[in-house]
């Protein structure tokens, strides 16, 4: 659709369409850079507002405040008013933060100074007390010879004592830097220094505002050169130096002044914190609403930049994809936007003829979105192509259950899925981790998988690898005592039925077990052989059936697009090739189950290719003859399958070339050749407008070589895929066997403590490949997803 929007109402119109959320706009200004577009300045303003909001969010989150929309909060701001309000709040908050940081730094410095005055002062007090004690002791021994007196004291001539003035530097340093600090001081001063230190515990560092372990130090030295070196080393180690008076009276006076200043600073800091908290509370009350408005404004201006401006700069032209059933809602939104903006001219909304392939749009809900996402992971469906998600809703959980069939494990899955479903309202509002969120998104898929796992567990007759007898006792009994049907008792007591280990058990009735596998098979020496045979053949039947479903869906696509040529040259040969070989194998499997034949199906299929018509191995295996005329019929099926290969390869490119040459002769121009039988140009254009079978956005010349190569690749892929995909479906049997054996090991070793949850990931991977084998029969997957401009999606994005 094409929209011609008056420039005066462009903003309100795009905002109204964002509320509808059903238009995907095309970028009509892709040749311009981001700075050359019409609304580049508005986008820049929105980016600046987003930066401020991220700053506010960071500040609010640090305080632990909530940002939910509150009653009475400011939500009705115009764009310019909101920009001015955010600018004002940012300036105020940054000023408050700067003042708070400055006050905190001053508080930390004063606190360290107080520690220096207290701890370093104790150094001098202790030294003075020791000096006084030493003086008193020496003064009391005048005229008396003691052991401590110098030997030459009496003979030494009286001389004037030489005094040296010592300097000192006091400060605080990190505890872990103290040892290298002392070592470097010793080397720099050649040992002419003395360091005293005492740890003070964790204090707030003025530079980093973080708590670190520190120690108070005092370095004594002699000489100005030593002082210069010590000061440089202190600076290199990040040590904070503080003034320290020598006199005790001055120390006590300075300590009292610091204490008073600390009390004043603490009062000022508390007042600043209250003011900062009030500012953040006012921001937090409106932050969510402001964030939503800014995100929407940013999205609106980004969308407006995709529109092209006419030469008069009064009208904006837009092109957008719109779902057909949403035209009425879009028209209403355009009318209401014109009324809100008081525009003199309404927006013109008209269809536009285009040859581009439209995007693919599937409406989903909480039940189907999981399955649609699984299908989309393999590629987006082409426009109006059959959607595999409809069938995946059933096939995905069922084939998973074929591999995960266990009644007990299925019940555990049901309990887990039931909790996710019942608590979806509460869990949907929580911030879940990645794994839990993925499980929550697929809760309905897990629920269906649990149902099917319980069903297949009943068919396999297993609960935690233990056989069940829900539907009655076994149909097998001791040959000599038909009433004795307890196989477990036979196993633990061989005397109850010795014939069970020599002749085997005997059926007590002609009717089989009511549902599933007879529990008598579990635990026997032939259990693995029997279950392997059943599950392997069942996997082949399910695989062939699903591949046939895929080919039939390709027929629905061809009928919808009226592509009768593909039906004749692709669908029919593909069905013949697949069913002449593997459909026939499936019929033989079912026939063998029905009539109890002992034929070896491996030999039948091998000799069908290596020796056509030789069914009984030249008399060596007569049991392989399952019906009259089997040899000629197998030869016929083989010939039909071989003939189907060139039918898939050659006719379609040749017919397309013939059509192209015919049209070229009629029009003397190169036109696109339609793969349908009808040559009506109007129908061709209509098909192209609806997405048709065209991949391209413009008409192109017909290249026979390219078409031939494409058809050859498609044919080889199908022929080889028919064989490999059938063999690939055997993973259903392989993973079912692995799950069963793991369950048995867990039961034997852990006594029902494990649920073999580790195998679930492998089962998901196993079926995921089977999903691709089903889809490649009909699913091109070369479309692109419908991504409308929607405020609902914008609100979920990060700022």
Automatic annotation (TrEMBL):
GO molecular function, one term: ATPase binding
GO terms for biological process, alphabetical: vacuolar acidification
Pfam families cross-referenced by the UniProt entry: V_ATPase_I (PF01496)
InterPro entries: V-ATPase_116kDa_su, V-type_ATPase_116kDa_su_euka
An annotated GO cellular component: vacuolar proton-transporting V-type ATPase, V0 domain
Membrane topology term: Multi-pass membrane protein
Keywords: Coiled coil, Hydrogen ion transport, Ion transport, Membrane, Transmembrane, Transmembrane helix, Transport
Coiled coil: 79-106
Function per UniProt: Essential component of the vacuolar proton pump (V-ATPase), a multimeric enzyme that catalyzes the translocation of protons across the membranes. Required for assembly and activity of the V-ATPase.
Protein name: V-type proton ATPase subunit a
């Amino acid at each position: 659709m094409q929209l011609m929007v008056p420039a005066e109402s462009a903003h309100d119109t795009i905002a109204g369409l964002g509320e509808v959320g059903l238009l995907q706009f095309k970028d009509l200004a892709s040749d311009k850079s981001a700075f050359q577009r019409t609304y580049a300045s508005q986008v820049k303003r929105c980016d600046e507002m987003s930066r401020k909001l991220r700053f506010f969010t960071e500040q609010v989150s640090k305080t632990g405040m909530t940002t939910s929309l509150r009653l009475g909060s400011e939500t009705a701001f115009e764009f310019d008013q909101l920009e001015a309000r955010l600018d004002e709040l940012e300036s105020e908050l940054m000023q408050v933060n700067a003042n708070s940081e400055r006050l905190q730094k001053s508080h930390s410095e004063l606190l360290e100074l107080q520690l220096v005055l207290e701890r370093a002062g104790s150094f001098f007090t202790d030294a003075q007390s020791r000096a006084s004690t030493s003086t008193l002791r020496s003064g009391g021994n005048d005229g008396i010879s003691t052991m401590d007196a110098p030997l030459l004291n009496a003979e030494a001539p009286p001389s004037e004592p030489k005094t040296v003035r010592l300097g000192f530097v006091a400060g605080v340093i990190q505890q872990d830097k103290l040892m290298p600090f002392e070592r470097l001081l010793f080397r720099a001063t050649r040992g002419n220094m003395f360091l005293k230190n005492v740890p003070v515990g964790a204090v707030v560092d003025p530079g980093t505002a973080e708590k670190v372990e520190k120690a108070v130090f005092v370095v004594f030295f002699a000489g100005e050169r030593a002082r210069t070196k010590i000061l440089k080393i202190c600076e290199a180690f990040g040590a904070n130096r503080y003034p320290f008076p020598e006199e005790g009276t001055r120390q006590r006076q300075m300590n009292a002044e610091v204490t008073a200043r600390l009390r004043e600073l603490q009062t000022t800091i508390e007042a600043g914190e209250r003011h900062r908290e009030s500012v953040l509370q006012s921001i937090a009350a409106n932050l969510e609403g402001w964030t939503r408005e800014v995100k929407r404004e940013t999205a609106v201006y980004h969308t407006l930049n995709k529109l092209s401006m006419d030469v008069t700069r009064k009208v904006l032209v837009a092109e957008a994809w719109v779902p057909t059933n949403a035209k009425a809602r879009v028209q209403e939104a355009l009318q209401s936007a014109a009324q809100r903006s008081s525009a003199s001219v309404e927006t013109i909304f008209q269809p536009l003829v285009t040859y581009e392939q439209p995007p693919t749009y599937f409406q989903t809900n909480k039940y189907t979105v999981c399955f649609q996402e699984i299908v989309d992971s393999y590629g987006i469906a082409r426009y109006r192509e059959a959607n595999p998600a409809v069938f995946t809703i059933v096939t995905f959980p069922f084939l998973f259950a074929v591999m995960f069939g266990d009644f007990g494990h299925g019940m555990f899955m049901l309990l887990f899925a039931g909790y996710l479903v019942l608590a979806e309202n509460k869990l949907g509002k929580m911030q879940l981790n990645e794994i839990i969120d993925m499980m929550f998104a697929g809760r309905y898929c897990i629920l269906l998988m649990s149902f099917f796992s319980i069903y297949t567990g009943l068919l396999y007759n297993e609960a935690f690898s233990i056989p069940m007898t829900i539907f009655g006792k076994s149909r097998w009994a001791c040959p000599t005592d038909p009433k004795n049907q307890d196989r477990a008792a036979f196993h633990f007591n061989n005397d109850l039925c010795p014939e069970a280990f020599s002749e085997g058990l005997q059926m007590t009735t002609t009717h089989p077990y009511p549902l599933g596998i007879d529990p008598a098979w579990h635990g026997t020496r032939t259990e693995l052989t029997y279950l392997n045979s059943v599950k392997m053949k069942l996997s082949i039947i399910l695989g062939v059936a699903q591949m046939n479903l895929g080919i039939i869906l390709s027929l629905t696509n061809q009928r919808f697009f009226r592509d009768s040529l593909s039906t004749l040259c692709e669908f029919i040969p593909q069905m013949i090739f697949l069913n002449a070989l593997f459909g026939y194998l499936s019929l033989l499997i079912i026939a063998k189950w029905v009539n109890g034949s002992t034929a070896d199906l491996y030999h039948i299929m091998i000799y069908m290719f290596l020796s056509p018509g030789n069914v009984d191995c030249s008399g060596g295996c007569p049991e392989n003859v399952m019906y009259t005329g089997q040899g000629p019929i197998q030869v016929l099926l083989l010939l039909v399958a071989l003939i189907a290969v060139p039918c898939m390869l050659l006719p379609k490119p040749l017919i397309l070339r013939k059509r192209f040459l015919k049209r070229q002769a009629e029009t003397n121009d190169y036109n696109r050749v339609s793969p349908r039988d009808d040559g009506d140009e109007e129908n061709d254009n209509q098909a192209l407008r609806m997405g048709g079978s065209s991949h391209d956005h413009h008409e192109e010349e017909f290249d026979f070589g390219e078409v031939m190569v494409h058809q050859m690749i498609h044919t080889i892929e199908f022929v080889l895929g028919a064989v490999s995909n059938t063999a690939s479906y055997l993973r259903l049997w392989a993973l079912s066997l692995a799950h069963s054996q793991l369950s048995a090991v867990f039961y034997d070793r852990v006594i029902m403590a494990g649920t073999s949850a580790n195998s679930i990931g492998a089962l998901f991977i196993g079926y995921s490949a089977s999903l691709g084998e089903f889809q490649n029969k009909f699913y091109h997957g070369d479309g692109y997803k419908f991504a409308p401009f929607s405020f609902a999606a914008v609100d979920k994005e990060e700022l």
